[in-house]
Amino acid sequence: MSTPRLVIADKPSGVSVHRGWDDSRDTVMHRLRDALGTWVYPVHRLDRATSGVLVVALDPDTARVLSASFQEGRVEKEYVALVRGAIAEAGVVDHPIPAREGGERVPAITDYAPIAIVRDRYTLVRCRPRTGRQHQIRRHMKHLSRPLLGDTTYGDGKENRKMRDEIALHRLALHATRIVLPDPDDTTRTLEARASLPDDLRAPLERLGFAPDVLDAIG
């Protein structure tokens, strides 16, 4: 039996992947290390407020192989987002954004498609970023004037307050539902993982009016 080389975790919203500016020790990396009893190595990141599929390597060699796959664009990532405003058709956002805060703008492309619309005002959107820029989906949906609900940086503060009061949405409405990446043991094969909607996102979506069967099909 071969030794496991990676772990695919279902990250909760509100927990950082690793230590940031607040130097918190309650991170995904620390939780996994404590649960597995071994050191773990991040190969990509999700924003603290984003939940969903996260890939972590169990040794440095695997971390290098997987990191290269991400950097070379050989990893397929899929997210679901709740935005303010109706999106009736699929499309592509090809809009440069800063590689880091205050940095130079670099190419960034996101494919998107509507899943369902409720109240003629809120759309559940499937997003597939072709590039991996910081806050890419959040920035690109803002570029379309369709900001994510619960987004305190790029979103609509008045709408966020309304969603907290009406449907108890207390988090960013962005979830990484699916990832497909080359198998580090044989890069001619792929590995796929999915993450269903967590309760702290699914329950508000149901209260907003999205049908349970629509939400069941996500992830």
User: Which shape, going by the Cα principal axes?
Assistant: globular
Number of helices: 6
Poorly predicted runs: none
The termini sit apart by: 29 Å
The average pLDDT score comes to 93
Q: Strand share of the residues? A: 25-35%
What percent of the residues sit in helical stretches (DSSP H or I)?
25-40%
- The helix-and-strand class reads alpha+beta
Order of helices and strands: EHEEHEEEEEEHHEEHH
Tally the beta strands.
Answer: 11
Write up this protein:
- With 219 residues, this protein is α+β, with helices and mostly antiparallel strands.
- It is globular, with a radius of gyration of 17 Å.
- Strands 1, 2, 3, 4, 5, 8, 9, 10 and 11 form a 9-stranded mixed β-sheet that branches. It has a two-stranded antiparallel ribbon with strand order 6-7.
- It has helices spanning 28-36, 60-71, 136-143, 157-167, 199-208, 212-216, and strands at 6-11, 41-42, 51-57, 76-84, 91-94, 97-98, 105-106, 109-118, 122-129, 174-183, 186-194.
Topology of helices and strands:
Elements: E1 6-11, H1 28-36, E2 41-42, E3 51-57, H2 60-71, E4 76-84, E5 91-94, E6 97-98, E7 105-106, E8 109-118, E9 122-129, H3 136-143, H4 157-167, E10 174-183, E11 186-194, H5 199-208, H6 212-216
